[in-house]
Amino acid sequence: MNQKIKMRLRSYDYRVLDRAVSEIMDTAQRTGARVRGPIPLPQKIHKFTILRSPHIDKKARDQFERRTYNRLLEVDCTSQTLEALMGLTVASEVEVEIKV
Length: 100
Fold this sequence. Notes:
Elements: E1 3-11, H1 14-30, E2 34-51, E3 61-77, H2 79-86, E4 95-99
Antiparallel strand pairs: 1-3, 1-4, 2-3
Helix pairs in contact: 1-2
């Protein structure tokens, strides 16, 4: 019984994200599954501005940004691959969303 699983991984650090993707791909390929990806999705940039001093210097501001990196993996897996992927521990900074 083969299932197609789409995994969407998100992180603020692209190095941690790429390491998690390589771990998932190695585990899937070791069990004989076919893996498509990683497909880099567009990164989301969230920019925000904060006042340095709320009283006198209204024009003094700091600007920050937060980048979210995304990767997409498609895995054609068997039950053995599914069990191996469920037992895999990924870094806590990476959010994994799985669709069957």
